Amino acid sequence: MYKEGYVMECKGLSKKYKSFFALYQVDLKLERGKIIGLVGPNGSGKTTLIKLINGLLVPTEGEVLINGTAPGPETKARVSYLPDNNYLSNWMTVTQMIDFYGDFYSDFNKEKAYDMLASLGLDPKQKFKTMSKGMKEKVQLVLVMSRDADLYCLDEPIAGVDPAARDYILRTIISNYAEGATVLISTHLIADVEKILDEVVFIRDGEIVRHAAVEELREQYDRSVDALFREEYKC
Amino acid sequence: MLGKLLKHEWIATIRRYALFYLVLGAMTLFAAVIHALPVNNFFFSMGEGAVLVLYVVTVIGVCFCSTGMAVVRFYKNMVSDEGYLTFTLPAKVEELVLAKFVMAALWQVVTIVLSIVSLFLVFVPGHIELKELATLISQLTEQSGMKISVFVALLMFSLLHQILLYYLSIAVGQLFGTYKILASVIAYCAISFILEIVLVVIFVGVFFIVGFDEVDVFMNSVSGMTKFSFISMGWTLVLGIVEYFIVCNLLKKKLNLA
Prior knowledge:
The complex is a heterodimer of chains A (235) and B (258). By secondary structure, chain A is an alpha/beta fold. Chain A has a single domain (8-232), classed as P-loop containing nucleotide triphosphate hydrolases (Rossmann fold), CATH 3.40.50.300. Helix content of chain A is 34%, strand content 26%. Chain B is globular, with a radius of gyration of 22 Å. The longest helix of chain B has 38 residues, at 42-79. The interface between A and B is medium-sized, with 25 and 24 residues.
């Protein structure tokens, strides 16, 4: 298995919709074993970048490589993706979805999934159509974090969650991702996420404006990443 | 991977189709029993007529629902929110589409077969002798110039092609963001219209090249109609393959999950 080099590389990556660039000339390299925040305001290109990494969009220019390979079945087997909306089939039970994941992903750990569900107080026999939005989001997170992936892409994992549950979700993320894997968290709620980040990538209007270690930024600017973000993106 | 996709397509669709077939089975039994009762009275006849109408509506409804399920399943699982899971599975787009098509085709065939069996069970036993039925079929073959087996094969090809046409319409429609469903309906109408025009052009071309009289003689013979049916099936097959690859290409390069 390819474990050397960067887990994800973008080279001159652009995505254009008609005359609008959602992403423009993005050069980005993500190292292994880091928790990286992808931060920016709404419409800055975070979700576009994550969709390109996951093969849900095709670049207009440039390339994105995961473990040195362009997105396809091989990379999807190594990337665990949590979108910012509900993708679960309402007719399924949690157990059926766990079986589904187990069938398609060889790195999926059913035991881990059931343990996480138990700690969240979720009933595996419950159907998704009887669950609240928050419960579904937790199940989705459990499914994604139960994989032994090289790269976890979490798109706004705490956006729709109450403040009390946010800390729990962040603890679930840092205690369940595979050793040596990279977690890319896209969010605009930096204050909540900052404490678990190793690096942060600032994105604005489709361009990367900053990529640095969180500690370095705090020392250099003598303020939190959240405060820096508010200054950078002041309206 | 295709095997796993087919397995999960089966799991996802069996419960709905089982329900359709349960309804069809129950209605078949009810209609067959009522139709077989040797009661000869005006009010019973009215009631029997109503039951048979309801039965025929049920058969037509099950056929429509079968096709509708294939369309809804493709739409929901490929281009709406469930698409986020479908398209991040470690499978090629060609496999994803093929799995959907194979299962939809299987259900269409099962629905047609069960509908034919159902109609036979309600209208034949006790009402039409098998010899009479064989004679009727033979007369139909002579008049139409087409064997029943060829007709059924042509019908199947046409129905399976329709599934791919629906998929193509949905793949085109999903390019249009929030108006996916409306755009899919418009795409279906537009593509169907274009295909009809192409067919008309081909037919007119054949008439002019071969001659009207020759074509008339050809189409009025059983062997001629059989050959024409095979040509139609060939055309439908080629069309279906082209549509399949266009669907895969659109979903690979222009997927637009909102």
